[in-house]
Amino acid sequence: MKAMPMSLDLDFVRSQFPALGSDWVFMDNAGGSQVLRDVAARVSDYLLTTNVQTGATYEPSRVSTQRVAETRQAFARFMNCDASEIVEGPSTTILLRFLSEAMTGRLQPGDEIILTNVDHEAHIGPWLRHAERGVTIKWWRCDPESFELDLDDLRALMTDRTRLVCVTHASNILGTINPIAEIADIVHEAGAELAVDAVAYAPHRAIDVQALKADYYVFSVYKVFGPHHAVMYGRRDKLEALDNIYHYFFDKSRVPHKLEPGNINYEAAWGSVGSVDYVAELGRQADGSTGRAAIEAGFAAIAEQERVVTERLMDFLTSRNSVRVIGRRSTAIEDRVSTVSFTVGDENSKRIVEAVDRAHVGIRHGDFYARRIVEEHGLLDRGGVVRVSMIHYNTVDEVDRLIAALEPEL
Q1: CA end-to-end span of the chain, whole Å?
Q2: How many structural domains does the chain have?
Q3: Which SUPFAM superfamilies does this UniProt record tie to the protein (predicted)?
């Protein structure tokens, strides 16, 4: 017998996010989710009680040091890795630039980096800089009709000079979930490394970097119910092989600190633990589990709630002849996250979004810094796409409110 999907206590969920008490519906979550009450309390507590530099012998510094260490342990549970493999920073954009800089010594003229045209520019721009040093950039482009990345196209691009493949786990426009473990097998078989931007995936599904087999995996906590902070997993041996980008007296084996110039934001790091604890609490409520198992159970419940609201929206959009959904129409948990983009005939997307604004429903239009896919597929001249990005605290009633605002405009 097939197990019943885990369900969320939406009253509990929504009570944890103070902003949801307003009269606005928040459906621009791919740009940044609302923040948990506990996250804000942790940030405040850090600043008011342990706001000192780490590493000293006096008591407040020892507490601060322990708190920062606990953030790495929390995200190691979150991603299923060792705490020494957790690098922290202000944003995914910055961490990817740090990673690119730290890889400079290993990239030689004639080496190859493969990029996709569906990625956020944060996972493209830093790598393009290596072209100035003679590194060859190759493009893995999506199908112009389906917007899918074909694995056979990747295989055809790989050579014995390929050093790195960069890809998103889930597109912040398409919502499509890419098969990272399969991609990793292709990449590793050729002797290359895989860097994954998980910003648009991390709020929606459990992350297991051991199963995914990526060498580097990055996401921003402010998309996962927390503050402006980011986390990167890197396989320990891969991190040790990177250049030191901090002070000269940090040797190459000193990870993760050699990749965190200027130190991390301690209060944001401590606040971010609240996001991990929250997902674990959802899992505990769902099936009584603890530790890593609770995180997996929490995300299973999150995924089911998001499937429900995505299905409601997709059923409406696909019933309208004027609407073109950009990407997959499937709402299956394994196929997509709850980010849905579309265009409406020849209409400018800005007009659609402004009409929805009047109903106090927050959505968005544009390219969302995934500019290349929007440009290359002729979507920029109409104001980009309309994007509805939901997460688990959104409800069917909120989707119906959005539909009521959209219906006269489509």
Answers
A1: 42
A2: 2
A3: PLP-dependent transferases (SSF53383)
Length of the chain: 410
Examine the domain organization and report whether 55 and 183 are in the same domain.
yes
Same domain, 71 and 17: no
Q: What is the number of other CB atoms lying within 10 angstroms of the CB of residue 144?
A: 10
Is the overall model pTM greater than 0.85, yes or no?
yes
Domain, as residue range, for 311:
10-35+293-407
For 41-105, give the DSSP string.
Answer: HHHHHHHHH--S-TT-SSHHHHHHHHHHHHHHHHHHHHHTS-GGGEEEES-HHHHHHHHHHHTGG
Task: Choose one of 274, 302, 322: the last residue of a domain.
Answer: 274
- Vertex 247: Cα angle to 244 and 248 (nearest 5): 75
Q: How far apart are CA 174 and CA 180, in angstroms?
A: 16
Token pair for 13 = 């969920």
Q: Are residues 16 and 98 in the same domain?
A: no
* CATH number of the domain enclosing 111: 3.40.640.10
Let me know the angle formed at the C-alpha of 361 by 358 and 367, rounded to the nearest 5 degrees: 100
Q: How many CB atoms lie within 10 A of CB 56?
A: 12
* 67 shares a domain with 19: no
pLDDT digits (tens, 9 = 90+) for 208-234: 999 999 999 999 999 999 999 999 999
Q: Could you say which of 274, 305, 339 is where a domain stops? A: 274
How many other CB atoms are found less than 10 A from the CB of residue 234?
29
Determine, yes or no, domain membership for 227: yes
Q: Which helix (H) or strand (E) holds 293?
A: helix 291-318
Residue 114: in which H helix or E strand, if any?
A: strand 112-116
Q: 14 and 138 in one domain?
A: no
SS3 content of the chain, % helix, strand, coil (to 5): 45, 15, 40
The answer to whether 167 and 138 have CB atoms below 8 angstroms apart is no
Q: Residue 105, CB half-sphere, CA atoms under 13 Å: how many?
A: 10
- For 229-268, the pLDDT digits (tens) are 999 999 999 999 999 999 999 988 899 999 999 999 999 9
Q: What's the token pair of residue 53?
A: 């530099």
